[in-house]
Amino acid sequence: MPGVSEISLHTENLREDIDDFVRAKVHDLAERKQFLPSIESDIQNFLMEGADGMFLWVSLVLQELSKSDTINELRGKLKALPTTLSDVYQKILNTINPKYALTARKALQCIVYAARPMTLNELKVAISVTPQHTSISSLQEDVPMEIKGFLIQIFGPLIKLHDDESVHLVHQSAKDFLTDEGREFLSVSNTPISLQEAHIQLAVACLLYLLFDDFKESDAGRYQSFPEKYTFLDYAAMYWVYHTRLAALKDQRDNLWPLFQELVQSGLKLDLAYQLLLCSQAETYEHTPPLQVAAHLGLAEFVFQLLQHGAEVNEIGGKYRNALHAGLLSSNEAVDRLLLESAAAAVPDRVMMKLLLDAATPHSYSQEQLHSQYGRSSRVTASWSMVQLQVDPIVAAAVGNWQNSREILEQLFSWNNHIEVSNAVLLAAVANEESGK
Fold first, then answer.
1. Residue closest to 77 by CA, chosen among 94, 65, 93
2. Mean of the per-residue pLDDT values for the chain?
3. What is the DSSP code (8-state) at residue 160?
4. 10-14, 381-385, 414-418, 420-424: which has the minimum mean pLDDT?
5. Number of other residues whose CB lies within 10 A of the CB of residue 368
């Protein structure tokens, strides 16, 4: 095709291409370092013999050789050349200065496990923020002054920058090496890094930033107008939930719940974070109670903690009718069960509590099964009348039942013929692709 370079997949042609690449790059290096022709020839031979079809291996090794200050140092590196890409990556990690081991570990966590590639400015915040920082000004004193040079100094050819200043690993094989080759952790200066630890660190960084004193208003547009100042706000607001979910939250209550609790107590800061997450405008955003926020986001552990601290399941107001409605939208069974158990706690009837739990579970109960479990006793009708505040979300849950919503609705109407078809019920029906009609 015109204007498109062709790359041959034939082994012999590939070898010729690599040999040409080696000759050109080594010649450039020899001119810069003023090598003798014999040294240039030795380097070419070593690289041509060791390349084994890997352009990337050649590039990485050349970058390492270019750091040599003397001929003896260069010859030593040639004799100890890593023979595979994995060996090259391991050598880079092993040579990281212990002084930067902790920073390197945090940076790799971000580069490998971030929800999307971070920019240089985002990365320098993510690797620097600690609980001691309470504002952007206090953080500025601890971030690397020249982050690009700092990262190159630590990782060398292991990373690359795109035109938008986002930071990436040099190649997919580098990510495979760090995450897939039978490794349950990364190793930087013999310090293990687990997947869970990475997401905890990223979730903590996001929450700490959202708690900064700089954010004194809930109008997201006010801060979005100055992205050069609030460089980490977009990432923190959009992805703190993503990292929190992947941090195996149940086992990390001490790490993350206190931060979320502080966000809840601040009020407007949670509003700001949630507004940004929903991409809402300030004039259309409505303050949403924390339990509704946690339920909608599917954060079961935070829902549990909020309920333990006295949050009301039936609190009206905000984006959703109540927390049960918000939970139904999350499609998180653990959240639904927590909320329904809390709603049913005041009902002195085990049959009704079972109904509450079953109605919001995406199972395939038939009408016959409902009859056999609940019957048509006056006890059920009486229990139903005691929980009028829960009627709407229960009907919405029934409508969302993925197989037998019609049968379950008929059963519910037989128990209570005063059920209204609300927006929440219609929304649940629309979301039910199998039987919502």
1. 65
2. 76
3. E
4. 381-385
5. 9
Whether residue 214 is predicted with pLDDT greater than 70 in this model: the reply is yes
As separate numbers, helices (DSSP H) first and strands (DSSP E) second, the chain gives 25, 4
Q: In this model, does residue 23 exceed pLDDT 90?
A: no
Distance (Å, whole) CA 242 – CA 219? 23
pLDDT in tens, 344-401: 654 444 444 455 545 544 444 444 554 555 444 433 443 333 333 345 666 766 666 6
How are the residues of the chain apportioned to helix, strand and coil, as percentages rounded to the nearest 5?
60, 5, 35
The encoded tokens of residue 159 equal 């990373």
Q: CA-CA distance, 13 to 234, in Å (whole number)?
A: 47
Written as six digits, the tokens of 158 are: 């292991």
CA dihedral 278, 281, 285, 289 (to 10 degrees): 40
Q: Per the structure block, which two tokens stand in for 383?
A: 């229990």
What per-residue confidence (pLDDT) applies to 380? Answer: 40
**Side chain identity at residue 264, one-letter code:** V
- Enumerate the β-bridge partners of residue 191: 188
> Angle formed by the axes of helices 350-359 and 333-344, to 10°?
160
Report the candidate in 352, 317, 351, 311 with the shortest Cα–Cα distance to residue 335.
311
Quote the tokens at residue 176: 């495979």
Q: Look up residue 109 and give its two tokens.
A: 């966590």
pLDDT at position 35, please? Answer: 80
Question: What ranges make up the beta strands (E) of 31-162?
Answer: 159-161
| Separation CA 426–CA 437 (nearest Å) | 10
pTM: 0.70
What pLDDT is recorded for position 347?
46
Residue 271 is inside which H or E element, if any? helix 268-277
- What are 89's two structure tokens? 């990556």
